Amino acid sequence: MMERPDTLMAARGLTDDQDRLITADDLLAELQENCGGAMPGVLAVPELLDLVQQTREMGLRIAREFNAYDGAEDISGFVRIHPLDAEAGGGCELIVENWQRSPANPASTREMAARLDTIDRAAAEVTARLDPSQRLQLLDALSADTADLQEAVAASPGEVWTNYVTLPGIAHQQPLHWRLLDGAACTFAGSERAWRVRLLPIGPASETPRGFELLLIADEPVYEAPESETVHDGAQTRLIGSALTPVLRQPIARIIANAETVRAKLAGPLRNEYSEYAGNIAAAGQHLSGMLDDLADLEVVEAANFKTIKERVDLGDAAKRAAGILGVRAQARSITLELVDEGEKIVARAEFRRVLQILINLIGNAVAYSPECSVVTVATEASYAGIVSISVSDQGAGVSAEQAKTIFDKFERLGRDSNGGADKGSGLGLYISRKLALAMDGDLTVTNASDNVDAPGADFTLSLPAAD
Per residue in 55-100, pLDDT tens? Predict the structure, then answer.
C-alpha cells in the first residue's frame, strides 16, 4: 500500500482485453467474488465493468467514483483506470482509492425484498390463495405439467397446500410456520421439473396474516406450442385466448423477471438511466401480460355456454382479500384502502373467484385513477328485495353522465385521466367485470361518489342476489 497526501490506495487490479479480472488485491478480489464473479473472470461489478469497457474502447484514462453492493454492505470508492497497450495484454489497470464500507440502508433492503417478490410473481407458473391456516382456496396453473396438480386440488379442495405436493427433506408435520416453508424446494406428480416455493403473507407480515399468496416457480420454463386447430364459436374464431395466451405468458413472465432483476440492481450498482430503462421494460411487460389475461377472460365470458357456479360468498371477506392483494400498490401511491364493516355478514349467491376478480379490477382502477394520499373506500350493503351489494369509491376525477353510458363498453379506457403515469390498460377490465356480474344474475353500475366539483370521485357498485 502506498500512502498519498490526501488519499489511500486500497486495491489494485488488472484486466485483459476481454474485461476479465486477471489479478487483484484482496479487497477487490473479495468484492469480485461477493458480486458473483470469479478469479479470473469477467468483472462482476457493473459500474467498474462499464468504466473498464469505456477506457479500453476509447483508449483514455478515466477517474471516477463508483458504488457497489457486496451482498451485505454498500461499498464506495474512487477508481482510476488506465488503458494498457497490446503488449501488456490490451486490458486495463484499476487503482481503487478511498475504499469505504457502510451498512446497507434498511429502507433499500425492504424495497429490494419487495422487488424480489415482484420478480417471483412474474416468474411463477402456479399461483394460489391460501387462508390463514394455509388451506388452499384458489389455484391458477397453466403449464401442461401442472394438470395432475390441478386434478388433485379439484378432487380434494380446501386442504392444506402441502398435501398436494412433496417437500424434499422436510418430514415435519404440516403445516409448518410459513417462514420455514418460504423458499423451500418442491415437487408434485406429473412434473419432472424442480420447483421453488414462495409464501407471501397478505396484509401485515405478522404472526397472524390474513392469508397467503402461494407461488410455485420452476427451475426452468417450458414453452408449449399451441395446437394447430382453430375452435369456432359461431362466426367468431377463438384463437388468442385458448392458443396464444399460454405460449406467450411464460416468455413475457421471463422478460418481466429479468427486467426487474436489472432494475433492482441485484448484481450490483448500475447507472440510473439503465435501471430506469429496465423499469420501463418491466412495466411494458406487465401491461402486455395483463392484456393477455384480459383477452383470455374475454374469450371465456363471450362464449355461448359460459356459466358461473352458485355458492355462498361473504362479500366482506372477498373485500379484505382483494384489498390485501392490492395493498402494496396502494401504499406505493400513499393511498389508504378503507374497508367499511356493517357489523354483519353480507352474503351473496355467486362464484367467489369471479367476485374476487371483479373487486381486484375495481380497486386496482380506483388506485390508478385516484390522487396520491387519497382514500379508496370499499363498503358492503345489506340486502334489499333479495339483493346485496359492494361498492368501491375513489376520490379521483369522477365519471360524467356521458362517460357512464359507455364506460362498460368493450375497449373503453375509462375516459378519465390517470394519475402518476398509471397505464390505462386494455379497455376490457370493466367490460369483462360487468359480463361476469350479469352471468351471476347481478349487475355492475357506476355513479359519481359525491357532488364535490373538485374531486367528485367515482362509485362502482356490484349488485348480486342475496344468499338464502
Answer: 888 888 888 888 887 767 778 888 899 999 888 888 999 998 878 8
- Residue 73 neighbours by CB distance under 10 Å: 13
Q: What is 9-103's CATH superfamily? A: PAS domain (3.30.450.20)
Handedness of CA 156, 159, 161, 164 (dihedral sign): negative
**Contact 338/395 with Cβ under 8 angstroms?**
no
- DSSP annotation of 287 reads H
Distances (CA, A) of 72 to 38, 75, 102, 105, 420: 18, 10, 9, 10, 33
Contact 408, 444 (CB under 8 A): yes
Instruction: Say how far apart CA 308 and CA 353 lie, in whole Å.
Output: 10
Say if CB 217 and CB 124 are below 8 A apart: yes
Contacts of 421 (CB under 8 A, 6+ apart): none
Taking the domains of the chain in order of start, what are their residue ranges?
A: 9-103, 109-301, 311-465
Classify 311-465 by CATH class: alpha beta
Whether the CA torsion 415, 420, 423, 428 is positive or negative: it is negative
Element spanning 282, H or E: helix 272-301
**Cβ count near 103 (within 10 Å):** 9
- Tens digit of each residue's pLDDT (9 = 90 or more) over 86-141: 888 889 999 988 788 877 665 555 566 666 776 677 678 888 888 888 989 888 88
Whole-number Å distance between alpha carbons of 269 and 69: 7
Cβ count within 10 A of residue 164: 21
Q: What letter would DSSP give residue 109?
A: H
The pLDDT of residue 215: 92
- CA 465 to CA 164: how far, in whole Å? 34
> Is the overall model pTM greater than 0.85, yes or no?
no
- DSSP per position, 89-101: TS-EEEEEEEEEE
The rounded distance, in Å, linking the Cα atoms of 62 and 54 is 8
Q: Look at residue 441 in the predicted model and tell me its pLDDT.
A: 93
